[in-house]
Design brief:
mainly alpha, 2 helices, 78% helix, elongated
């Protein structure tokens, strides 16, 4: 009986982790796509160079992380509402 419960918990944690990874990667990709329209040449000398692309990637990761965190938190909060009633 205890092994069924622990296996169910492990499965739930695994699905939650996989969902977090997929949502995070999707949001980073979406941020990268959105940042392609940003005129970085106003702030960076060589936006098409390696350093400019690295900065764009880092911005996409940071922005994507915050968007993914918001979405995952929102999903978690929505799931908690069912325990109100």
């Amino acid at each position: 009986m205890d092994s069924d419960v622990s296996q169910n918990i492990s499965s739930t944690i695994g699905v939650s982790g996989l969902m977090s990874i997929v949502v995070s990667l999707f949001c980073i990709g979406l941020s990268w796509w959105a940042l392609q329209n940003l005129k970085l040449d106003l702030f960076i000398r060589h936006p098409k160079g390696a350093q400019g692309r690295l900065l764009q990637l880092l911005l996409a990761v940071v922005l994507g992380h915050f968007v993914a965190k918001f979405l995952l938190d929102y999903i978690g909060w929505s799931n908690m509402i069912r325990y109100m009633f």
